[in-house]
User: Fold FGGY carbohydrate kinase domain-containing protein from Bos indicus x Bos taurus.
Amino acid sequence: MPGGNEPRSYYVGMDVGTGSVRAALVDQRGTLLAFADQPINQWEPQFNHHEQSSEDIWAACCVVSKKVVQGVNLHQIRGLGFDATCSLVVLDKQFRPLPVNPEGDSRRNIIMWLDHRAVSQVHRINETKHSVLQYVGGVMSVEMQAPKLLWLKENLRETCWDKAGHFFDLPDFLSWKATGVTARSLCSLVCKWTYSAEKGWDDSFWKMVGLEDLVTDNYSKIGNQVLPPGASLGSGLTPEAAKDLGLPPGIAVAASLIDAHAGGLGVIGADVKGHGLACEGQPVTSRLAVICGTSSCHMGISKNPIFVPGVWGPYFSAMVPGFWLNEGGQSVTGKLIDHMVQGHAAFPELQAKATARGQSVYAYLNSHLDLIKKAQPVGFLTVDLHVWPDFHGNRSPLADLTLKGMVTGLKLSQDLDDLAILYLATVQAIAFGTRLIIEAMESAGHSISTLFLCGGLSKNPLFVQMHADITGLPVVLSQEVESVLVGAAVLGACASGDFASVQEAMAKMSKVGKVVFPRHEDKRYYDKKYQVFLKLVEHQKEYAAIMKGD
Ligand SMILES: Nc1ncnc2c1ncn2[C@@H]1O[C@H](COP(=O)(O)OP(=O)(O)O)[C@@H](O)[C@H]1O
Ligand SMILES: O=C(CO)[C@H](O)[C@H](O)COP(=O)(O)O
Assistant:
């Protein structure tokens, strides 16, 4: 790593989330010197079909990259790292976008991670009970790539499947676009494509599910060269990509990470000394990184493989090299809060009032809750309003995509107070979902003492406090709010050779900011609400059984 007197080295981190692309210029201490973001397009041509455009996303990357390096001596930029959602990008044999829709719109060449079109395909894959399923929590998710590939083969054979030359996870598409290297990151292949870090591809799985053509091609369409995240790719940034991004040609470009995993790297390695945290002096395996954006991902690592039913993994070396990873998740969290708030009758009034005060709607709602709570703790406002948050199925630990959302305790009034309390109950439901995931991980062998939160929702103090109160665990927030971008920059820093390992880079570049402790005095109340939370899903299953019966 460069010493104190040497000129500063900079890395560019690029994070492609569901709703926007973010870039940052980060130095070797993990400090963000510049930040830019740019929204990206999403299409929902049918219910549960979600599509994006790889060209639109690359164009957004170019806009934000140029912004963050403005006025900087380009010679000091040493590396570039990408992370992105685990969406499926489809290109033809000449690397041109191919449509993933019956309309034949080739702009829309990405099936997004949250797309649930491949329900029938994933059922059939799960019915095989193939041994690779052991490594995705026992049940493959409809959000992974195998069911989506099978859907393309069964539904768009001539227009897409037969013409396809390359199926990329979005993070790998970006590193290919920057370097021309088609090698895939171990992270994406292990987490979403059933690849094993130890044994490679399992031919029998692909043959059994009806995708034997991928094997015949020696996996050239889905990746037969695999590199660990942070490894330097080819000869670095190509002249063409350098021009697009406004960066120097030849700088190191890293094998990439899925966004949640980059968030994990950005927060989990921080030095916690002096903050009064139980995880000080405990191994890093006692920390759970929770990356909360459109969805939430719960990343826990272990020295030995831990099989947690309904929780993805164990994945070897998919996030921190040498460690196994379990990934719990909630498919919609930020998206659910937005859905509840924006769909309420009092939303126009909320928007007008928040705008008049120059606040975000969330900041306004938080202060409104403070106003109506009177002397009681804010969380007690939902004593008779309860939410089950699986409006897009349950990712973990129930791994049941048929589950739906539930709200109990509605009244006839629809004013701002009702909206604020419904918003609070939704935030709490998401935190109860996290508690359920932690309990599943702990009963399988994890021992979690501290949460490390990042992502857009970690900017919401109510969301953070509810996670602390409801899980009973302290929550660490990073010094850099955009810590997913620190994770992406860690990759660029490793690829540049300035750090010897991902572990060294993440320990030096992630820093503790604020710590939020649980209000233990409220525990009894939340324990009771948790009992109701568990009853909600039990009842939902009973309703389904009644309706299925004769
Ligand atoms: N300042 C904020 N305060 C409260 N919530 C926020 C704030 N900014 C973003 N969010 C929430 O975070 C979510 C988006 O998080 P983000 O990490 O940007 O998403 P993604 O990575 O999926 O694009 C939004 O759905 C919104 O609910
Ligand atoms: O499954 C994933 C990670 O493994 C998805 O990429 C992730 O959940 C989407 O991220 P975000 O909600 O931040 O857009």
Summary: Residues 17-20, 293-294, 334-335, 337-338, 360, 362, 455-457, 459-460 surround adenosine-5'-diphosphate (ligand 1) (CB under 6 Å). The chain has 18 helices and 22 strands. The two ends are 69 Å apart (CA to CA).
